[in-house]
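Re: Re: ligand-bound prediction request (bumping)

Still looking for help on this. To restate: I need the protein modeled with adenosine-5'-diphosphate bound, output as structure tokens. Inputs repeated here so nobody has to scroll up.
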Amino acid sequence: MKSKLSNQFLRSFLVIFLLTILDTVLAFVLLSYASSLISDSLAKNQYPASAIIKEDYSQIDASSVIERGGGVQVVDREYRVVFSGGIDTIGKNELTAQEFTRFLTESRSKPYHYDIIYQPEGEFWLIVTFPTSLRLDFSLVHNKEAATGDFIRSGLVLTFVVLVFVLILALFTYIYSKITAAGITVPLKKLRDGTRLLREGDYSARVDLRLKNEFAELQDTFNDMAARIEQEISLRKKSEEDRRRLILDISHDLKNPMSSIQGYVELIMNKEDMTAQKRNEYLEIILSNSIRANKLLTELFELSQMDSPEFSLKLERTDICEYIRQICAELVPVLESQGFEYQFDISEESVFVMLDADRFGRIIQNLANNAVRYNPTGTLISVRLTVQNNQVIIDFRDNGIGIPSHLKENIFNPFVRVDDSRNSKSGGSGLGLSIAKKIALAHAGDLTLCHGENAGSTFRITVPAI
Ligand code: ADP
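Reply:
Sorry for the wait, this slipped through. Here it is.
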């Protein structure tokens, strides 16, 4: 990619290089044409020495030259300046032969235009001077009469100068094309390398171009995209891991009751001399195991139902205070019969929320079952309902054994249990809190665990008031 772009730039700049040479030649042609166009209108050409010269220098009228900012000097054959008007670049009244010769030979290099003619009759030189406004001393002159050696030497020098000019221009063109191409190929290469890393599975790949142009925008978009992919992949990995763990947990939890049922059924079938009492004992074990397996499957079904896209709640406008009061009243006989203390603090005012009464009841039911199941007799269970910032907050609290703080978040994941031995005794599936959380989320609310170890457990249900 780099070489292709680089060559493309080189080709483009080569065209510019040729155009520059063409333009330079054109500029010289134009310059000489323009110069010939305006030459007639220039003061130096309007007032040449030949126009004002007379046989007798005292009759020369220099006024028009002086008016136009020029100067007129007359030098006689003794090299004395016998007349001077306007600007004077000789600067002396009397010259030596050498000084006058130097003046004549050096006149071209001065910023003045001199027109000098010699009047043989009057034996004097007339010098008309005009200051040069702008002058480019360049002309290509070829004289066939010049010595052959000179022509070759001059031709070689000229060719050398032209070659150096062309070479320098070509070198600059090459360097500039490389620099310009690098401005594009370097960031492109970095972006390409980043994309390759991403393709090869390195989702932590990021690009840092240290630029502030359009490439920087591309870099930001690339980095943003890479960050999103990285996040997606890690989420996917996590959900894949969760799914794998869930299947493992399900099969593990179903295996025990199912193999127990199978074992006892085989025992009853094979032992013909079994007493009725023993058979009943085995049948009870079979029944309790099938109840356990059935409960697990029912709860799993409920959980997966809530994950399916077809799942929807039957929401109705409900006074949540009245609703919770009713549920608490239903809990009282259970709590009393099990020897639990209780305390309810529910506002007398009506607060309305959108509720699927059956499903929402499952949250309280699960929390109450857990509180009774996992805590010792005499534990205080309290329910408190408040409204804050248009949110109904129901705190379901017990001052029992509590849940370790490291399980604060995970406790809502399926099959997470604090203590498996404690749990197997109570027959919990580890799905109750997951189901309760999903129901709360489906109501645009939440279920969180506020207090952990040693302070009992406080589960907080929130649901938006309307
Ligand atoms: P399970 O069906 O096992 O009760 P849950 O999801 O309802 O499943 O509860 C997960 C675990 O959290 C329980 O196994 C239990 O160890 C613990 N737990 C839940 N509620 C309480 C509580 N009020 N006090 C102490 N531990 C609790």
